Amino acid sequence: MDKAAIIERLERACSVREYCKSDILRRINQLKGDDNVDGQEIISHLCSARFIDEKRYASAFARDRSALRGWGVRKIRHALAAKGLSEEDITCGLEQIDAARASQRMEGVLMSRLRSLEAAGGDIFPKLCRFGMGRGYTYRQIKEFYDNNRTD
Question: How many CA atoms lie within 13 A of 19 on its CB side?
Answer without folding.
Answer: 21
